[in-house]
Amino acid sequence: MEHLQAELDSLRSELSQMCNLVLEQLKRAEKVFIGNERSVLKEIASIEKLVNAKELQIDSRCETILALFTPVAVDLRFILSALRINGNLERIGDLADGVGRTVSHSKENFDKNLLEKVNANGAFKGTIEMFECLIQAYEKEDTLLARDIFVKDKLIDTIVNQAISIAEEYAKNNPDSFSQSIQMLSIMKMLERVGDHLKNIAEEIIFYSEARVLKHGGKKANGAE
Fold it and tell me: To which H or E segment does residue 92 belong?
C-alpha cells in the first residue's frame, strides 16, 4: 500500500505540473493575441513540446499503476479521472498553440477596435480565471470550486456568441479586414473550446471526489465507495 500511495502522490504532483504548464501556455497565447507580443510565439511552441512530453509521462504512470497495483474504489476513480484530465489538458495546450499559429499567419496586428468590440480581453481573462479556479479545485479537491467552473463557462460562451454577430457586422463594414475578422473569430472559438475542456476536467474532479458522474444525471458510480 505504501508503494501505491507513493505512486499516486507522484501522479497527483505530475498532473498539477501539467495544469500549471498548460496555464502558462494559455497566458502566453493571451500576450500574443491581445498584446500583439509576437516574440512570445516561440515560447508557446516550446511549451507545446513540454506539454506533449508530460502527457505521455502521465499516461505511462497511470498505466504502470493500473498494471502493478490493481487499485480499487477511490484510487481507481482518481487514476481513470487523471487519464481523462490529462487528455483534456493536452487539448487545451493544442488550442493555445493554435492561437499562436493563427496570429503568426496574420500579416498585421489585430485591430484594437475590433478586439474591444468583441470583448476579446474579457474572454481571455475569463478563461484564465476559470483555469486558475480549476487548479485550486484540483489541488484542494474542492468540488464547490469545481462547480464554479460551470457558471464561468457560460459567461465565456455568452461573450463568444455575441462576438460572432459583431465580427460579421465588422467584416461587412470593413471588407479589407474580412480575413482578420475570420481569424479573430477562430481564436474566440478556440477559447470557447478551452472552456469546454476545463468544464470536462471539473466534472472529473467531482467524479473522483464524490463518485458522481454528472453527465448521467448525477448517479453514483457502480461500486463506488
Answer: helix 73-105
